[in-house]
Amino acid sequence: MSNPFHKKTNRRQFVKTSSLATAGTLLIPSMLAAKAHIDGDDAIKIALIGCGGRGTGAAMQALLTKENVKLVAMADAFRDQLDNCYNTITADDISDWSGSEENLKDRIDVPEEHKFAGFDAYKKAIPLADVVILTTPPGFRPIHFEEAVRQGKHIFMEKPVATDAAGIRRVLASAEDAKKKKLNVVVGLQRHYQTKYRKWVEMIQAGAIGDVVTSHVYWNNDGVWVRSREEYSKRAGRPLTEMEYQMRNWYYFTWLCGDHICEQHIHNLDVSNWVKNTHPVRAHGMGGRQVRIGKDFGEIFDHHFIEYEYADGSRMYSQCRHQPGTMSRVTESFQGTNGEAPKPGVLLTRSGHQIFKHDGRKDANPYQVEHDELFEAIAKGEFKFTDAENGAIATMTAILGRMATYSGKMVKWDEAINSNVSLIPDGFTWDTTPPIVPGLDGMYPCAIPGKTKVI
Ligand SMILES: NC(=O)c1ccc[n+]([C@@H]2O[C@H](COP(=O)([O-])OP(=O)(O)OC[C@H]3O[C@@H](n4cnc5c(N)ncnc54)[C@H](O)[C@@H]3O)[C@@H](O)[C@H]2O)c1
């Protein structure tokens, strides 16, 4: 059993060292004001930015760690989203969501004045916390991450961490600042927190199948939700502005979502990079939309196939498809000079003899583990997690693939990451015209390989 006083002293010292002492002279007055509030009791205080499905789950997972944690602030672009989330996490029974018999009421203290709605909501919630959970659509991640680091907070942020190269560069710059300030940053690429993957990747990296020459990575399934303009207009009792609509149905707009290659397939691309311990140097591929057509589907593709090349000449073959009724496959495999890793948790020699098997069904839930490990480190005053850079590289790998399929050209990593094409507007109001608008027929233009410019 740890000494509670020792823990308390450690945490306070750590928060102080990691944010105040390293925040830079410009920040110190505002940080002092914020810390006076935050240090009011011993709980590690959390602000949730983005109160949708994942935000609700991540907040619960943070509150279910064994550390002394409290949710103190919530922010969402839309007040109804925030209210739904608040009602879910404060319910008597949260077992459907969390699998836990506990309820979380005594770990939630979010008074009305700490509930913030609108595009600037994040700026008001972040100062109230020690740890910030960033779970909005990824188009906003660079802005929110930058601000959370600027304010000296520990961070859990979901993948992807951006939707364009300009956003990636912002995240990489803030990741460096976070390291200097000793801020723990965990990114929701949860395979890194899953025993099956940890053991499997470690053995491949140690040479169990020789040099890896090919990776095959897949996210092929039916796809995700669609939020219709009519439905949300009915709820609002008036037509939505174009910005309101795109923010509701964000998955289908590249500036907000990055396309489904970023949103989902990033997990598999990241595993290949993890095994190779680097990122690809170039990519070419093909993609389009065949079934994802109609006004509700914005501009993104429904399939991409990409051949990525690493600097050592090895290849990653990547498929992602969102087409209902087609074959589902979400996994990764690797072929090496001495053997094969046919699926996560399994290694074979070249002759097919099994040299490793970890079935993973009894592994702890990685969504919980990422929070358990993050909050334990914070409670102990340890600086342990620097996931932002890897999150940025994984996201950039997906963006590189998207650039290849949208353009139909060979795209090099160095050109892609230095691209000045920015998808994100300079400012946001509900009347701001988004970067893409529908034509007179209500349909959105989408990328045309051979014509669309991506760099
Ligand atoms: N790691 C995983 O397995 C996993 C699983 C699901 C989702 N995610 C990630 O979590 C993120 C959110 O996904 P979701 O499924 O929760 O979506 P969602 O639509 O359910 O929730 C997003 C929330 O963010 C809010 N929001 C949008 N813009 C905002 C802004 N500027 N400021 C504050 N709030 C804003 C929305 O109103 C909404 O409530 C995505 O990046 C997604 O990829 C990760």
Protein architecture, described:
This protein has 455 residues and is α/β, with parallel strands linked by helices. It has two domains: 4-191 and 367-386, Rossmann fold; 195-361 and 394-417, Dihydrodipicolinate Reductase, domain 2. Helices cover 37% and strands 18% of the residues. It contains 17 helices and 15 strands. The strands form two sheets. Strands 14-13-12-11-7-10-9-8-15 form a nine-stranded mixed sheet. A six-stranded parallel sheet has the order 3-2-1-4-5-6, with helices on both faces. Strand 4, helix 7 (141-150) and strand 5 (154-157) form a beta-alpha-beta unit. Helix 3 (53-63) runs parallel beside helix 4. The protein is globular, with a radius of gyration of 22 Å. The model is unreliable at 1-37 (pLDDT under 50). The chain binds nicotinamide-adenine-dinucleotide (NAD). Nicotinamide-adenine-dinucleotide (NAD) binds at residues 49-55, 75-78, 81, 119, 121-122, 135-138, 140, 158-159, 188, 190, 247, 263.
Give the gist of this structure.
With 455 residues, the protein is α/β, with parallel strands linked by helices.
What's the helix and strand layout?
Blueprint: H1 4-20, H2 28-38, E1 44-49, H3 53-63, E2 69-76, H4 79-89, H5 95-98, E3 115-117, H6 121-125, E4 131-134, H7 141-150, E5 154-157, H8 165-180, E6 185-187, H9 195-205, E7 212-221, H10 229-236, H11 242-248, H12 254-257, H13 260-263, H14 266-276, E8 282-288, E9 303-309, E10 315-322, E11 329-336, E12 339-343, E13 346-349, E14 354-357, H15 366-380, H16 388-407, E15 411-412, H17 413-417
Parallel strand pairs: 1-2, 1-4, 2-3, 4-5, 5-6, 7-10
Antiparallel strand pairs: 7-11, 8-9, 8-15, 9-10, 11-12, 12-13, 13-14
The site of nicotinamide-adenine-dinucleotide (NAD) has 26 residues, from helix 3, strand 2 and helix 6.
